[in-house]
Design a protein that fits this description.
single chain; mainly alpha; Serine Threonine Protein Phosphatase 5, Tetratricopeptide repeat; 81% helix; 0% strand; protein biosynthesis; guanyl-nucleotide exchange factor activity; eIF2B_epsilon
Length: 196
């Protein structure tokens, strides 16, 4: 019986995700106000009885799929999809920020992006760009990204741990840039204080 419930939950999560992408596509094409998009997402959450963490896990990926659907219909490459994703995340940042208010929810969102990248091989080399777009749109904080990056799963040889290690390696260029930018900012602050 427990196995059947697990399969049902997976099917519900898949159905929720498909409906979420369809809702965002309709909202985008009909130019629905963002506060109404939030209401529709919340209605889906209740209709499918999914926990808020599942919504947060799916949301950035659903916007990625929206960008993919918009771009790939014209036969565009991954780079065009990412350009569309950047534009979409900038435009819909209030919707994303409504759900990603704290470090824990941002970590859940990063986990969702990681799952998307693992399932979609063509996007793996683009993980740094995706994180950068969400960072630039003030959806993900530097603290959350660094917490995710520095996290070590408790079971070192598990599939989850191996995926996390792989994702960290993919994200390394962006994380290195963040660290460099932070140290340069700290040095400038020190220089400003010394000059006074």
């Amino acid at each position: 019986m427990a196995g059947t419930q697990g399969i049902d939950r997976v099917q519900i999560a898949d159905d929720f995700y498909k409906e979420l992408v369809a809702t965002l596509a309709r909202a985008d094409s009909e130019r629905i106000k963002q506060e109404n998009i939030i209401l529709e997402i919340n209605s889906l959450k209740h209709a499918f009885q999914v926990p808020i963490n599942e919504v947060i896990h799916c949301l950035p990926c659903s916007f990625l799929d929206l960008a993919r659907n918009k771009s790939e219909s014209s036969g565009a490459a991954v780079s065009a999809v990412l350009t569309a994703f950047n534009s979409i995340t900038a435009h819909y940042s209030p919707v994303l920020c409504n759900y990603m208010k704290d470090s824990e929810s941002q970590l859940t969102a990063i986990s969702g992006i990681g799952d998307f990248v693992i399932k979609n091989e063509a996007y793996r080399p683009r993980l740094p760009q995706m994180l950068n777009f969400l960072y630039d749109a003030d959806i993900l904080s530097e603290t959350s990204i660094m917490t995710w990056y520095n996290h070590t799963p408790s079971t070192a040889n598990s599939n989850k741990a191996l995926c996390h290690t792989y994702l960290k390696k993919l994200a390394e260029p962006f994380v290195s840039w963040l660290q460099t930018a932070e140290s340069e900012s700290s040095e400038e602050d020190d220089d400003d204080q010394d000059g006074n």
